[in-house]
């Protein structure tokens, strides 16, 4: 069965929309349980207006994806849940917001405990240290706010040029006259 990569940095995992889990699981999880929390924790980052998402599971193990270098997410808010299995090492680390980096970044290391999740701003620089043994699986939900990203693309810091897409795309929306907002895929770089 053909499948897409979870994102541009991970090679092993699965997109949950390809398994049909958006409508029955991820969307209700975001709308009913996560958005009330994110609206309190991240009001200035679109936490109260998260209207789309991208959800996937990633796998880290020896001889596959071992770690994940410093990056920021294509999201206003991210949920990262450690699903297990058994692994050693592989902690997460967090640094500055990409909008306000310091000349010498300082990172805080966080142990990612199986069955626990972390909420963080998508624009916060972070990564995953190498696993030393075993397999680590993570559920990642990038939550997006079209009210925020329609003003400024979080990936290129420019006003978005919108391209049609199916599903949630990258969380941008366009409102033709008299119509409901239409989801669009990405900010195309010109």
Automatic annotation (TrEMBL):
Species lineage: Eukaryota, Metazoa, Chordata, Craniata, Vertebrata
Domain Fe2OG dioxygenase: start-end pairs: 51-145
Name recorded for this polypeptide: 2-oxoglutarate and iron dependent oxygenase domain containing 2
Obligatory cofactor(s): L-ascorbate
UniProt superkingdom: Eukaryota
SMART domains named in the record: P4Hc
UniProt keyword annotation of DNA-binding present: no
Keywords for the protein's UniProt record, in alphabetical order: Dioxygenase, Iron, Metal-binding, Oxidoreductase, Vitamin C
GO molecular function: dioxygenase activity; iron ion binding; L-ascorbic acid binding; oxidoreductase activity, acting on paired donors, with incorporation or reduction of molecular oxygen
Organism, as annotated: Chelydra serpentina (Snapping turtle)
